[in-house]
Structure formats: C-alpha cells, structure tokens
Design goal:
It is a single chain. With about 35 residues, this protein is an all-alpha fold. It contains 1 helix and no strands. It has one helix spanning about 1-35. It is rod-shaped and about 50 Å long.
C-alpha cells in the first residue's frame, strides 16, 4: 500500500528521469553516427 502511494507520487518524476535517460541515449547514438559518417 505504502509503495503504491509512493509510486503514484514519484511516478511522474521517475517517468521524467527515464525519458531523460532515453533522450541522452539517443543523443549519444546520434553523436556516434555523426562521427562514423
């Protein structure tokens, strides 16, 4: 119960953090592609 409440409160922050991680991964991949080609 407590965990589910905490997840609802911090779920948006966790989603933002995960999206930032995906964004950084895409940026790093794009940088590698630019270097390769």
């Amino acid at each position: 119960m407590i965990l589910s409440i905490w997840y609802k409160i911090d779920g948006s922050m966790m989603q933002i953090m995960s999206n930032m991680g995906v964004f950084r991964g895409m940026m790093s991949v794009a940088a590698d592609v630019e270097k390769t080609y």
